[in-house]
From TrEMBL, chain A:
GO terms for biological process: intracellular protein transport. Residues 1-141 form the AP complex mu/sigma subunit domain. Component of the adaptor protein complex 4 (AP-4). Adaptor protein complexes are vesicle coat components involved both in vesicle formation and cargo selection. They control the vesicular transport of proteins in different trafficking pathways. AP-4 forms a non clathrin-associated coat on vesicles departing the trans-Golgi network (TGN) and may be involved in the targeting of proteins from the trans-Golgi network (TGN) to the endosomal-lysosomal system. It comes from Loxodonta africana. This is AP complex subunit sigma. InterPro entries: AP_complex_ssu, AP_mu_sigma_su, Longin-like_dom_sf. The lineage of its organism: Eukaryota, Metazoa, Chordata, Craniata, Vertebrata. Transmembrane segments: none annotated. Belongs to the adaptor complexes small subunit family. It is a peripheral membrane protein. The gene is AP4S1.
């Protein structure tokens, strides 16, 4: 089960945070800073899986943005690693060469995309077309 | 003055523009004040915009609880954009602990039953994230209805909401179990994925569900097979998918770049070039040939494999059905892409968990071995982790990859080298101990500090278990102490001293080596302690310099004393070390041939040391010199060999004492028992255990056996009585009883009757059984059988025969009859078969 999904940049600013298990707000900021600290301190030769308290962290770096997913012991790390890339590809398709600014200014859309893909910590949809279809319909509706 | 409210984008710009933390806080507080005012005024049009800003601020870590009621209002509004924002806010702000939480139940209920599909989707999403137990109970029926709706968009979300509900309220699994069979027939991957997760959750929750779902294993196998063999998702075929979102009546949907255009920001002409359009509905266009062509299939495959693992665990039949498929997946999956590796990993884990064929397990271990050689460090990491889980069960298979594992010790990444270390330690066995220890010692010298303690203790443990010779063992421990002395455990010193003490032939060798090590470096405390002890004990051997195994060392007495004094005075020495050194000095006073003035001087100096322990020792030793000099030699003699591992030995000794105490019931027969044991030759080697059970099956142990036994078979037919002995009117009969709840236990009652004219006195009956059977004799009712059918003696024998070994019983009787003492030894050979079958 996915416990949380974070997108944090190199300066430690959170761009997206989604928690699938309740955590108090002050603990969240603490968690985010610690997580980004451990991710930043890793070099290129080190692997993308970290053990942090009772979570496993799987992270991938895209330019200046770190996407970190915290899971519990039952998940397959490689599958989550794939999932992160899948998510970024979906974003890339929707925003056409997505950048950090896109994510910042369209936070609600990114939330919707994430909600299409992950429901309560379980991955529900990985098919790009299906994920984006509702969003596109909605965009057309709001335009008209 | 009303300041116009900012749009979300502008707010973000402002926050980004803030140079310091304080400035940012100021901006945010000002904005929050606006938002609060706006909420109070109840402006419906812009409410969702305000909430959006509030959520952004919340993400940055600022309090946002005043937005909770607004979420409710937004959810209740009919406009879709309001609802969307309201539900998003609910997910982020309203968790179970908030009071406003329950209020959204009604809104969700309405939306679930009456809303359009997107609205239902939103409601389901929120419900699955923040639904509390009461909400789940209320809304379970709604969700169940939605499970069977035709639209896949809603169904896949409903399935996962069901998963959440089951997690919160396990009783609801009854509602969600029946639809699963129908849902499995779906070809839509989203629903399939959700269903698999649901079934997984159900199976983990209750064993009854597990049994129920074992029946669908063949179906799952088929689904997985189609997923593996098809090149891309099969359900992209033209017919059959009635999904409104994919069939937009207004024409092909342009996919790329929509997000930016919808916002109204400047569309970059180069980015939305026509070649980038992807016509979703054209049947001739396959799924876009990007690297992610296999991605849609990874997650379903992984989930199905995980479910198969749960279903196949400890179940022979299901495991057999899966064997072929797992082999196929393992061989056919492409390993060039990460997605393939993910699936392969899950396959390996599944193979190891179910009852698979031996060949399959070897295949799995080989796959992991191949992973270890992969250049991608992530794959190496998961391979090492999985191998660690497997090493206990498939030791020999993992041994084959030992050299690769040892190479992984050199990884720059700590988490990988830690795992490689654990795995290497687990792979040490008696045949490879020398080479492995050499590698591990090399690693110890260069490893990062946090791994040193583990490595050192691991090497010591391995050396203890598999040391080929004592000298090698001592060498290894010495090497570890010199390299990583500060990181070893506390009992390493004790172990080493005990080891050296036990190896008499190596005394000279050890003391020479320890002396040279000490002369080089006195900072490693465990080393210094051991060396000090050794020099004290075997100082005379050191001075003889007669060790053949190392270069001869010419050591003068003075040098030894100087070294020990250095240890005493060094500020690096711990108080315990100083104690060792002082005692060593004292012992040397008897071992050395020279005079003891120097030693006496040192000892008297320390008589006024500040450390209480040292002071006490020094004062006592001083007294030894002055008043009790005649006893000094005797007191400071060489120590005898210490008992190894104190507490363990005591426990075992206590257990055996307990065993003997509770066997005290047949106490009167005890003295003869030893003689009985001599006489018994019917048993393999040593005799059976009437009085001296081996430590394991002590009565405590017997009780454990009794409790372990499987439960109640049907009642057995009564076993006929047997007459085993008759002489001059004295008869011995055996009657059998088997308590129905413990089938391996047989109760024999031996009855001695006397039909002769003379009393039988001092009657003693003893019994012996083969070694695999346990016997317990209870005290007889008496030792006299009066004449002419007087009251018989009965004695109960309890026989425990769990292995159903053939029961042989040898009896020895001694008694006085007709004024003569009689002794009879015989084997009972008419025991009925039922006694042991």
């Amino acid at each position: 089960m996915i416990k949380f999904f974070l997108m944090v940049n190199k300066q430690g600013q959170t761009r997206l945070s989604k928690y699938y298990e309740h955590l108090e707000i002050n603990k969240r900021t603490l968690l985010e800073t610690e997580v980004i600290k451990s991710c930043l301190s890793r070099s290129n030769e080190q692997c993308s899986f970290i053990e942090y308290k009772d979570f496993k962290l799987i992270y991938r770096q895209y330019a200046a943005l770190f996407i970190v997913v915290g899971v519990d012991d039952t998940e397959n790390e490689m599958a989550i690693y794939e999932f992160i890339h899948n998510f970024v590809e979906v974003l890339d398709e929707y925003f056409s060469r997505v950048s950090e600014l896109d994510i910042m200014f369209n936070l609600d859309k990114v939330h919707i995309i994430l909600d299409e893909m992950v429901l309560n910590g379980c991955i529900v949809e990985t098919n790009r077309a299906r994920i984006l279809a509702p969003l596109l319909i909605l965009d057309k509706m709001s335009e008209s | 003055m009303v300041v116009p409210s900012l749009k979300l984008q502008d707010l973000i710009e402002e926050i980004r523009g803030a140079k310091t933390q304080a400035q940012e806080r100021e901006v945010i507080q000002k904005e929050c004040a606006h938002i609060r005012a706006s909420f109070r005024d109840g402006d419906p049009l812009h409410r969702h915009r305000q909430l959006a800003k509030l959520l952004y601020v919340h993400m940055l870590g600022y309090p946002a609880h005043f937005g909770q009621m607004e979420c409710l209002k937004l959810i209740a509004s009919p406009r879709f954009s309001d609802k969307r924002m309201g539900y998003l806010g609910a997910m982020l702000l309203l968790d179970e602990r908030q009071d406003a939480h329950l209020l959204i139940t009604n809104s969700i209920k309405n939306d679930l039953s009456q809303g359009s599909q997107p609205v239902q989707g939103l409601a389901l999403c929120t419900l699955s994230t923040v639904g509390s137990a009461e909400m789940c109970r209320d809304l379970a029926t709604e969700v169940e209805k939605l499970l069977l709706q035709p639209s896949p968009y809603v169904r896949k979300k409903a399935v996962l909401t069901a998963v959440h509900m089951i997690r919160k309220v396990p009783e609801l699994s009854n509602i969600f179990l029946p639809p699963c069979a129908q849902l499995l027939q779906e070809r839509h991957h989203g629903i399939l994925l959700g269903t698999i997760t649901l079934i997984t959750e159900l199976c983990e929750g209750s064993p009854a569900a597990l049994r129920h779902f074992r029946k669908v294993v063949p179906q799952l196998v088929e689904i997985l097979r189609t997923l593996v063999t098809s090149g891309y998702s099969a359900e992209h075929s033209i017919s059959g998918v009635s999904d409104p979102f994919l069939q937009d009546p207004q024409g092909p949907v342009e996919l790329k770049g929509r997000g930016k255009e919808a916002l109204g920001s400047q569309p970059d002409p180069s980015r939305c070039s026509p070649q980038r359009w992807i016509f979703l509905l054209s049947p001739m266009t396959p799924y876009p040939m990007s690297s992610s062509i296999f991605q849609p299939l990874t997650q379903p495959q992984v989930q199905i494999l995980r479910l198969l693992r749960i279903l196949g665990r400890n179940h022979e039949d299901s495991s057999e059905t899966m064997n072929d498929l797992l082999a196929q997946v393992a061989t056919n999956t492409e390993t060039s892409r990460n997605a393939g590796n993910a699936v392969l990993l899950e396959t390996v884990l599944t193979i190891m968990d179910i009852r698979s064929a031996a060949g399959l397990r070897v295949l799995a271990v080989n796959i992991l071995g191949r992973f270890l050689l992969n250049s991608d460090k992530n794959i190496r990491y998961v391979a090492l982790t999985s191998l660690l889980r497997l090493v206990q069960s498939d030791h020999s298979a993992v041994q084959r990859h030992r050299s690769t594992v040892v190479e992984c010790l050199q990884e720059p990444d700590t988490s990988l080298s830690r795992r490689a270390l654990e795995l290497s330690l687990a792979l040490v066995n008696s045949s490879n101990v020398r080479s492995m220890t050499r590698e591990l010692q090399g690693f110890l010298e260069s490893c990062p500090p946090d791994l040193r303690a583990d490595c050192a203790s691991g090497i010591l443990l391995a050396a203890e278990r598999f040391a080929p010779t004592k000298r090698w063992h001592i060498d290894t421990i010495l090497h570890v102490l010199t390299t990583a002395g500060t990181h070893v455990r506390d009992d390493a010193v004790a172990n080493l001293t005990q080891l050296i003490g036990g190896a008499q032939e190596l005394h000279a060798y050890s003391v020479c080596r320890l002396y040279s090590a000490l002369a080089e470096d006195i900072s490693q405390q465990p080393l210094v302690q051991v060396a000090a002890w050794c020099i004290g004990e075997y100082g005379d051997l050191l001075l003889e310099g007669s060790c053949e195994e190392t270069e001869p060392l010419q050591v003068e007495e003075e040098e030894v004393l100087v070294l020990l004094e250095k240890v005493l005075q060094s500020h690096m020495s711990l108080p315990a070390t100083r104690g060792y050194a002082l005692t060593a000095l004292m012992k040397l006073s008897t071992r050395l041939r020279g005079d003891n003035n120097r030693i006496r001087q040192v000892v008297s100096i320390y008589g006024s040391c500040l450390d209480v322990e040292l002071q006490q020792r020094a004062v006592e030793y001083n007294t030894l010199f002055r008043k009790y000099d005649h006893m000094r030699a005797a007191i400071l003699e060489k120590m005898p060999l210490m008992e190894r591992g104190g507490p363990q030995v005591d426990e075992e000794a206590e257990e055996s004492k307990e065993a003997r105490l509770s066997e005290a019931a047949p106490v009167p027969t005890e003295p003869q028992a030893s003689k009985l044991l001599d006489l018994l030759d019917l048993l393999d080697g040593t005799s059976g255990d009437s009085q001296h059970p081996p430590l394991d099956p002590s009565p405590g142990g017997t009780l454990v056996h009794l409790l372990d036994l499987p439960c109640a078979p049907p009642a057995l037919a009564p076993i006929p009585n047997v007459k085993v002995f008759e002489r001059e009117g004295l008869q011995l009969n055996l009657s059998f009883a088997r308590p129905s709840e413990i089938p391996a236990l047989l109760l024999i009652t031996a009855t001695a009757t006397n039909s002769s004219g003379s009393d039988v006195t001092h009657f003693v009956c003893q019994a012996a059984v083969p070694k695999s059977i346990q016997l317990q004799l209870q005290a007889p009712s008496g030792d006299t059988v009066p004449a002419q059918g007087g009251l018989p003696i009965t004695q109960l024998l309890r026989i425990l025969n769990p292995n159903k070994a053939p029961l042989r019983l040898k009896l020895r009787l001694t008694y006085n009859h007709f004024g003569q003492s009689v002794q009879e030894i015989f084997e009972v050979n008419n025991l009925p078969l039922e006694t042991w079958q």
